[in-house]
Design goal:
The structure is a single chain. By secondary structure, the chain is an alpha+beta fold. The protein folds into two domains: 375 residues, Collagenase (Catalytic Domain), CATH 3.40.390.10; 253 residues, Orthogonal Bundle (Neutral endopeptidase, domain 2), CATH 1.10.1380. The protein has 34 helices and 13 strands. The strands form five sheets. A four-stranded mixed β-sheet has the order 4-5-7-6. It starts with 34 loop residues before the first helix and ends in a 21-residue tail after the last helix. 42% of the residues are buried.
Length: 871
C-alpha cells in the first residue's frame, strides 16, 4: 500500500465538518448575538412567571453541568496519571467497550443477552496520556488485528477463537486445499514475490543483472518456470516422461539394461539405487548426518525406514483407506503396464537375486494375500497375479507389511538415544542379502564406501529382509513402479490418468474438493523455489528483507536467549549444576537469520557454481525437476565422510518456517518468516515479541525439549544433566504428554481421534517457550518504552500485555478440513493449532493475569494442574 499523508489535525480545518447549507456565505442568516447579550436583553424586560421558571431551570442546568465536568476531570486525571512501573502494568479493571458483547453462547454462536449476565473479559483502555500512532501503517496494522478477533468469545475459556475467529471467518479454505491459515497466506505472498521474479515480463530484467552469473541464474530460474507453465507441452507429452522412468526401472530390475555399468548392478540393487538417486523413496532410506554420539560434525551414513505411500502406518489398518489406496495403485499400474506384460511374467525371469530364488515356496503364501472386497486371494503357487487388480492388492499388502515393521513415529522423532545404533556396515549387508550394497553405494559415492552406519531401528533391517524373501518378485517390481508413479505423477499434465489418480488420493486424504484446481502460477513458483531455492532466495531477499530487518530480528532472538538464561536458576526441577550447563548450551547456540552463506546467497558466482549440475530445458518440466532433485541427492552424498558445513542451511530464504538442528546446535530463521503477521521491524515491541518472539522461543526451547535436551552444547548425544534434573524433567514431560493426549479432534464422522501426546511432546514443550518471549519483552520494556518502540495503536483499547498474547494467538489462525486434521494428528509431531494456542496458555499464569480471568476459567487452572516447565 502506497504511503499517504496523514490527515490534518482539526485545528487546521478551514470549515466545520457539518454546516447548515442555508447559512453559507451569510445568505439567509440572522445577526449573531453573544450569550451575555441575550441574557442582558432578557433581564431588561420584566420577569414573567414563565421567564422565572426558565431562569431557574437554566441555573440548575449550569450547576449540574459544573458537577459533571468536575467528575469527568477527576476521572481523566486518574487515567492520565502514569503507572508506577510501565514495565509491570497489568490489567486491574475490566471496561466493556463496543466490541465486547456480554453473552451466553450456544453451540451455534447465537448471542443471548441477559440483564444479569456477567460481561466477558474485555479490553482495558491504554494509558491515555500517550498519543496513539496515527500513520497509515499503524492504522492498517490496528485494523488487521481487530479484524482477526472474535470478541463474542470469552478469551479466558477459548482464546484461540477469540484471537483468530474474525480471521477464520473471513478466510475460508480454498477448494483446492485441505487447510488454510496464516502460514499459507504468507507463503502465497512470498510466492507472489518469487513469481514476480520469475515471469518474463517482470521489471527484473536479465539484461539489467549486474553480473553474468546473475544472468545465468535468472535464465535458469525462468526457463524452469516457463517449462512448468507450459501446460500445452505437458499435455502433449502425456504419460510419456513417467513411462520412460518406469520402463528404465523395469529394465534395471529385470537385468535387461544394455549399459555395462548398470548391467553390473542389475536386479533389485540397480532399480532401487536408480530410484533413490532421483529422490524417490522405497524399501529403505539412507541419509547423511553427523555422528551424534561421537563427533556430531563428522558426517556419516544413517539407515532408516522409508516414507510410505500413505501418510502414516495407521492408515494401512483402515480398510476403506486401504481400498482407496489399492484403487489408486490399480489405476497407475493399468496406465504403466501393458496388458500382455502382466500375463508374461515368470518367476524365473523376475527373481530378486540368487539367494531369494533358492527359497521355495515363498512364505507366507500367497505373496499377495487376500483383500478386503470378499476375495480370498488363493492362487495356484505356479501362477503370477492374474491381472492388475490382483497385482495392486499384492502391492498394498507388501507395503502394509513394511509399515507394520516400521518404528512408530513418536519413537522415531522423540527418542534420539534409541534411534542411534552405530553398527558395522556388514550388519546390513549380511542381513539384507537381496541388495548388493557395494554396487548400491557406487551409484552415489564410488570413492567413499562407508564401513559403519547408524541404524535408527535395527528390527526393521531384519524385517525388510524377511519381507523381501517372502514376496513374489513381480510384486516387488510393481511396488517400485508405484513408488515412481506416486512421486512423479504430480509433474505430469493435469489431463493424464496418472496425475488424476494421485490427485484423487490427495483429495480424499486431505478433504480437498474433487476436481478443484489451484493457481498454476502459484504451483510453478513453488516448484522452482523447491528446486532452486537458494537462487530464488537471492532475489527474494533483495525484494523483501531490507533495512534493519536482520538486526532487529536477531535482537528479538538474542533477547529471548538472555531471558531463558536468566530463568534457569529459578526453575524448580533443575539443580545448579544442570542450570549452569544449560546456560552454556544456550550461549553456544548458533543463530542464523535471513539467508545462508553456504551457498552464499549474496554471491551470484557461488550460487551459479552450486547449481552448475542442474541443466534446464524450458520445454521439459518433468525432466527438469528430475534433474534438480538428483542434484540435491548428489550434494547430500558428497558430504559423507566430511566435516559439517557450519554455514549450510536446511531451508531456503523464502521458506515460511524455522528450525532447530540438534547435532549442529543451531536455530535458523529464514527471511520468509520475518514478515507480517510474524514480524516487522517497524512494529511496537509487544507485537514483535508476541508473534516472532514466540517463534524464536519455540526453536530455542527445542534445544531443551524431550529430544533436544539429550544433545550437549557441542551437539553431542549424551546425558549432560544430573540424574535428579533428568528425573524432574521427566515429571514435567509426562504432565505435557497427558495434557495433550486428553485433546481430541472430530474425524468428520462423529468419531474422536486423540492427539498423540508422545508424538507431539517435543513440539508442545517447544511451544511452552512462550513464557520466555514474554519475559524477554518485559526485560527490555523500560528501555524500549523510552526509545518510543512501545507505542500504542489506534482503536486498540487493550493493554500491551493483552496485545502480546493476541499477537501470539493470531499467528496460528487456521481453517482445516476433518480429513486433513486427522492426517495431522496421525502423522505430524505438531499439535493442531487450537491446542497449540489454548494448550500453551493453560500453562502460562501471566496470560490469565493479563485478561483478569476468573478462578473458574478454563485457561486459569489451579497451579497443581498446570505443566509449569520454566517456573
Amino acid at each position: 500500500m502506497a504511503d499517504r499523508e496523514a490527515r490534518p489535525s482539526t485545528d487546521e480545518e478551514s470549515a466545520p465538518l457539518l454546516q447548515d447549507p442555508h447559512t453559507q456565505n451569510g445568505v439567509g442568516s440572522t445577526p449573531h448575538r453573544s450569550f451575555t447579550e441575550r441574557v442582558g436583553s432578557l433581564l431588561e424586560k420584566p420577569l414573567t412567571t414563565i421567564n422565572k421558571v426558565l431562569l431557574l431551570l437554566l441555573l440548575l442546568f449550569l450547576i449540574l453541568s459544573s458537577v459533571f465536568i468536575g467528575l469527568f476531570a477527576g476521572a481523566q486525571h486518574k487515567l492520565n496519571t502514569p503507572p508506577a512501573s510501565p514495565a509491570t502494568s497489568i490489567l486491574t479493571s475490566i471496561v466493556t467497550v463496543s466490541t465486547a458483547v456480554p453473552t451466553t453462547l450456544t453451540a451455534t454462536k447465537t448471542t443471548v443477552v441477559t440483564a444479569t449476565a456477567a460481561p466477558l473479559p474485555a479490553p482495558s483502555s491504554p494509558p491515555s496520556e500517550e498519543q496513539a500512532c496515527l500513520t497509515p501503517q499503524c492504522v492498517v496494522l490496528s485494523a488487521a488485528i481487530l479484524s482477526s478477533l472474535d470478541t463474542t468469545q470469552d478469551p479466558c475459556d477459548n482464546f484461540y477463537e477469540y484471537a483468530t475467529g474474525g480471521w477464520r471467518n473471513s478466510h475460508p479454505i480454498p477448494s483446492d486445499k485441505g487447510r488454510y491459515g496464516t502460514f499459507n497466506t504468507l507463503f502465497q505472498e512470498n510466492q507472489e514475490v518469487v513469481r514476480h521474479i520469475l515471469e518474463a515480463n517482470s521489471t527484473l530484467s536479465i539484461a539489467s543483472m549486474p553480473t553474468s552469473y546473475d544472468q545465468q541464474l535468472l535464465t535458469k530460474l525462468r526457463d524452469l518456470y516457463t517449462s512448468c507453465m507450459d501446460e500445452d507441452t505437458l499435455d502433449q507429452f502425456g504419460e510419456g516422461p513417467l513411462k520412460d522412468v518406469v520402463r528404465h526401472v523395469k529394465s534395471l530390475y529385470r537385468g535387461e539394461s544394455t549399459n555395462p555399468v548398470e548391467k553390473q548392478r542389475n536386479g533389485l540393487t540397480a532399480a532401487i539405487a536408480y530410484l533413490h538417486s532421483k529422490g524417490i523413496p522405497g524399501l529403505f532410506d539412507f541419509g547423511v548426518e553427523g555422528d551424534a554420539a561421537v563427533d556430531p560434525n563428522f558426517m556419516m551414513l544413517w539407515f532408516s525406514q522409508p516414507r510410505l505411500g500413505l501418510p502414516s502406518k495407521e492408515y494401512f489398518e483402515d480398510k476403506p483407506t486401504r481400498r482407496l489406496y489399492k484403487n489408486v495403485l490399480e489405476r497407475l499400474l493399468t496406465t504403466l503396464y501393458d496388458d500382455e506384460e502382466v500375463q508374461k511374467k515368470s518367476k524365473a525371469s523376475l527373481v530378486i537375486n540368487e539367494e531369494a530364488s533358492n527359497v521355495w515356496p515363498p512364505w507366507p503364501w500367497p505373496p499377495w494375500g487376500g483383500d478386503d472386497d470378499g476375495h480370498d486371494g488363493d492362487k495356484d503357487p505356479e501362477h503370477k497375479p492374474a491381472d492388475i487388480h490382483e497385482l495392486a492388492k499384492a502391492v498394498v499388502k507388501f507395503e502394509r507389511r513394511l509399515a507394520q515393521a516400521s518404528l512408530d513415529l513418536d519413537l522415531l522423532y522423540q527418542d534420539p538415544v534409541g534411534t542411534y545404533n552405530k553398527v558395522p556396515m556388514t550388519n546390513i549387508t549380511t542381513t539384507i542379502v537381496q541388495i548388493n550394497f557395494p554396487n548400491y553405494f557406487a551409484t552415489f559415492t564410488p570413492r567413499n564406501y562407508p564401513s559403519e552406519v547408524v541404524v535408527t531401528y535395527p528390527a526393521y533391517v531384519v524385517s525388510l529382509a524377511d519381507i523381501l524373501n517372502s514376496t513374489d518378485a513381480a510384486v516387488v517390481e510393481a511396488y517400485l513402479v508405484t513408488r515412481a508413479a506416486l512421486s512423479l505423477s504430480p509433474r505430469l499434465g493435469t489431463s493424464t490418468e496418472s496425475w488424476k489418480a494421485v490427485r484423487s488420493l490427495q483429495e480424499t486424504l486431505q478433504g480437498i474438493k474433487p476436481g478443484a484446481m489451484g493457481d498454476r502460477a502459484e504451483y510453478c513458483a513453488n516448484s522452482v523455489d523447491q528446486a532452486l531455492g537458494y537462487a530464488t532466495g537471492r532475489y527474494f531477499v533483495n525484494e523483501t528483507f531490507g533495512g534493519n530487518s536482520k538486526d532487529k530480528g536477531t535482537k528479538v532472538i538474542t533477547d529471548v536467549v538472555k531471558a531463558f538464561k536468566a530463568s534457569l536458576p529459578h526453575i524448580s526441577w533443575m539443580d545448579e549444576k544442570s542450570a549452569a550447563a544449560a546456560a552454556d548450551k544456550a550461549d553456544a547456540i548458533r543463530v542464523k537469520v535471513g539467508y545462508p552463506t553456504s551457498p552464499n546467497t549474496e554471491s551470484a558466482a557461488s550460487l551459479a557454481s552450486y547449481y552448475s549440475l542442474v541443466k534446464i530445458n524450458k520445454y521439459t518440466y518433468f525432466d527438469n525437476m528430475l534433474g534438480a532433485t538428483a542434484s540435491d541427492v548428489y550434494k547430500e552424498w558428497q558430504q559423507l565422510g566430511k566435516q559439517r558445513d557450519l554455514d549450510a542451511w536446511e531451508m531456503t530464504p523464502a521458506t515460511v518456517n524455522a528450525y532447530y538442528n540438534p547435532p549442529g546446535n543451531e536455530i535458523v530463521f529464514p527471511a520468509g518468516i520475518l514478515r507480517p503477521p510474524f514480524f516487522s521491524q517497524e512494529w511496537p515491541s509487544y507485537l514483535k515479541f508476541g508473534a516472532f518472539g514466540q517463534v524464536a522461543a519455540h526453536e530455542l526451547t527445542h534445544a531443551f525439549d524431550s529430544a533436544g535436551r539429550l544433545y550437549n552444547q557441542e551437539g553431542k548425544l549424551e546425558e549432560w544433566w544430573t540424574n535428579a534434573t533428568s528425573a524432574g524433567f521427566k515429571v514435567k514431560q509426562d504432565c505435557i504428554v497427558n495434557q495433550y493426549a486428553s485433546y481430541a479432534v472430530d474425524d468428520g464422522n462423529g468419531n474422536e481421534v486423540h492427539v498423540n501426546g508422545n508424538l507431539t511432546s517435543g513440539e508442545n514443550i517447544g511451544d511452552s517457550g512462550l513464557i520466555q518471549s514474554y519475559r524477554a519483552w518485559k526485560a527490555q520494556y523500560e528501555d524500549s518504552f523510552k526509545a518510543g518502540t512501545e507505542y500504542l495503536l489506534p482503536g486498540l483499547n487493550f493493554t500491551r500485555e493483552q496485545l502480546f498474547f493476541i499477537a501470539f494467538g493470531r499467528i496460528w489462525a487456521e481453517n482445516i478440513k476433518p480429513a486433513s486434521l486427522v492426517q495431522r494428528v496421525r502423522s505430524d509431531p505438531h499439535s493442531p493449532n487450537n491446542f497449540r494456542v489454548d494448550g500453551t496458555l493453560y500453562n502460562v499464569p501471566e496470560f490469565a493475569k493479563a485478561f483478569n480471568c476468573s478462578a473458574n476459567a478454563k485457561l486459569n487452572p489451579p497451579p497443581e494442574k498446570q505443566c509449569l516447565f520454566w517456573q
